[in-house]
Each structure stands twice: as C-alpha cells, then as structure tokens.
Write a structure and sequence with these properties.
It holds the Pfam family Metallophos. This is Calcineurin-like phosphoesterase domain-containing protein. InterPro entries: Calcineurin-like_PHP, Metallo-depent_PP-like, STPP_CPPED1. Residues 34-249 form the Calcineurin-like phosphoesterase domain. There is one protein chain. This protein has helices at residues 11-24, 51-73, 94-111, 132-137, 182-191, 225-236, and strands at residues 31-36, 81-84, 114-117, 154-157, 161-165, 197-201, 240-245, 252-257, 260-265, 281-288, 293-301, 312-317, 320-325. It contains six helices and 13 strands. It starts with 10 loop residues before the first helix and ends with a strand. By secondary structure, the protein is α/β, with parallel strands linked by helices. A hairpin with a 2-residue loop joins strand 8 (252-257) and strand 9 (260-265).
C-alpha cells in the first residue's frame, strides 16, 4: 500500500494559487470556463476483458482525458478554470490518484488554467472504501491539517461569480450514499447566501426536474430531510444560475433542476466497463460581468490525440490494482 505524504500540496490548493494569480492580473471582467466529468483515468478492467484489451482501453482513456484538457486550453479566450464533475479515476487508490494529480498539476502549471473537481463514487478506495486518499491528494486541504468531511465541500470565489463544490457521494469514511450530507447542505446554504452569481457542481444529479425519471443508480432520490432541504433552498435561491453534474456517461443534457439551468456532461472518457467514451466532449461557458449572466456556449467535440501515451498503466486484477509498464 502506498502511503500519502500529507504535507504535499493538494491539487485544489495548487489550483487556488493559479486562479488567484490569474484574477490579480485579469483586465477583462468577462471570462470563460469549461466543464466535463467521468474519465476513469489510467484504468482497464482485466477481469471483464483480456489483459491486452484492458491495457488498450486504459491508454485510450489516458489519451481522451489529456485531449480534453488540451481542447479546453485552446478555447478563445483561454478559460479561467476547468470544473470537473468527479470519477477522475476508477478506484481511489493512492497510486491512481497520484497519477491523476501529477498529470493535471503539470497541465495547470503549464497553462495557468486552474482545475477544480468534486469527488465521484469512483474516487473511493474500493466500492465502499473511504475518500481519505482523495482528501489528501486532491483536497482541499490546507497545510498539514487534514480537513474532515466538510473539507470535501468547498467554495471558490471570483469577484462576481462563486462556485459551490459539493460532495454528494457520502461521508469520507463511510460507504457510498448518493445524496446531500449535513456538511454538503451547510456548505450549499452558506455558498448561496451571496449577491454573486452561483454555479453548483456535484457528481450525481438529484431525481428532480429533467432527471426525475432517471434510475436511482444515475440520479439520487430526494428522500432524506437534507435532500429535500437542498431542493427547496435551490428552488428559492436567486443566486444559483447553473448546476453542473456528471456521473452518467455518454449522455449530454441541458435541462433543469428545481427550476435552475442544469448541464450534464459525463463524456470525459469513462464510457462503459468495456469501452471508453466514443465521442468525448467538453462543455463551454462564458461569464458576462455586465449583466451577471452565464452563457452556455455549447458542447465542443474533442479530437483524441492517439500519439500521446502513458509510461505505465494501473489495472484491476483478481489480486487487486497493479501497475504495468507500457511497452
């Protein structure tokens, strides 16, 4: 088992520094941002597939994800940040999360485009495992103090736009439960109490609005007091202008949740257990400062660069997750 150095900067902390530096030098009050989710970066299932096929799929997902980042970086004007809806890896082992973090950190530092994400169910270290590895590698976590579950719910501020990032895949140390926890609700209520426009990012959509007829595996039923309070407060909120969700692969949808505009994009590469996403897409938005509006600029198809290749790949075998050199 790989131990995580809890003194390392998390990906979130690195991105916050990059964002603040961009904001300090920003002259145009309007800016663009990008959203996508669900990649299963560097993963293939050697139980359901042959060893060779698993490795090929893992390479393909690697190529898809980095091609999505490259496509985002080439948007005009250059995005201020990328929002990511979770399921960056397949299993939240320290190995997979460090591999993911290293690739994204390199991109963030090279392009000066911040990258902020919420946890998906695949960020857990196993089906019912904890989110501790995610907490310590992706964050947010300040210094050497590991934040508890509310640390996976956080708020990002720009002068006129606020992002409320919610963990709706269950508490850090407990099994997966799709829905709104106490700390997610507290962060949401705090985040929408502002004169700024608000974007809410979460992994799993609630069964409401355009997602009401989706199965419970794809959208969580609004049954608990927290779930109901979230929907009620969302409906009444004047600040929330956009909700971004992923979790569901190979479907692009622009609809509503509690009367608010919602965009689904889980086309970041994950696809199915036996086939990566065929047509990866990034969702593009522009924040217009003058009238405080968020314009949906549409879905941008991504051409996958098949020339880039990882040096190694992590795959799931009967004996657990192993690292395999790419030859």
């Amino acid at each position: 088992m790989t131990l995580v150095d809890t003194h390392i900067e998390t990906l979130t902390d690195i991105s916050l520094k990059v964002l603040n530096k961009r904001l300090a030098n920003q002259k145009n009050p309007n800016f663009q941002f990008v959203f996508l989710g669900d990649t299963w970066f560097d993963w293939g299932n050697a139980i359901l597939q042959s060893f060779t096929k698993a490795k090929q799929d893992a390479i393909r997902r690697y190529q898809i994800f980095l091609s999505c980042l490259d496509k985002a970086s080439k948007q005009k004007p250059k995005p201020l940040f990328i929002l990511y809806g979770g399921d960056g890896v397949f299993s939240g082992s320290a190995e997979q999360l460090m591999f993911f973090k290293n690739a994204v950190e390199k991109f963030v530092r090279k392009t000066n485009i911040a990258f902020f994400m919420v946890p998906g169910n695949h960020e857990r270290n196993g089906v019912n495992g904890s989110l501790v590895n995610y907490q310590n590698i992706i964050g947010p976590r300040k210094g050497n103090k590991t934040v508890q579950e509310n640390g996976l719910n956080y708020i990002i501020n720009t002068p006129k736009l606020r992002m409320v990032m919610l963990n709706d895949v269950g508490p850090v140390a407990k099994p997966t439960r799709y829905g709104i926890t106490n700390s997610a609700l507290a962060t949401f209520n705090k985040g929408i109490n502002t004169k700024k426009d608000v974007v809410v990012v979460m992994h799993v959509p609630p069964k409401a609005g355009s997602f009401k007829s989706f199965p419970s595996s794809e959208a969580f039923p609004v049954t608990t007091p927290n779930d109901k309070a979230f929907i009620a407060n969302l409906s009444k909120s004047k600040s929330v202008k956009l909700i971004l969700v992923s979790h569901i692969h190979d479907i692009l949808l622009k609809g509503t949740i509690a009367g608010k505009t919602a965009v689904l994009n889980g086309n970041g590469g994950a696809g199915t257990d036996t086939r990566p996403t065929l047509n990866p897409v990034i969702s593009s938005f522009t924040f217009i400062n003058k009238n405080k509006s968020i314009r949906f600029d549409g879905q941008r198809s991504v051409t996958v660069n098949t020339k880039i290749r990882p040096r190694k790949v992590f795959i799931l075998t009967k004996d657990g997750i192993i690292s395999v050199p790419i030859v």
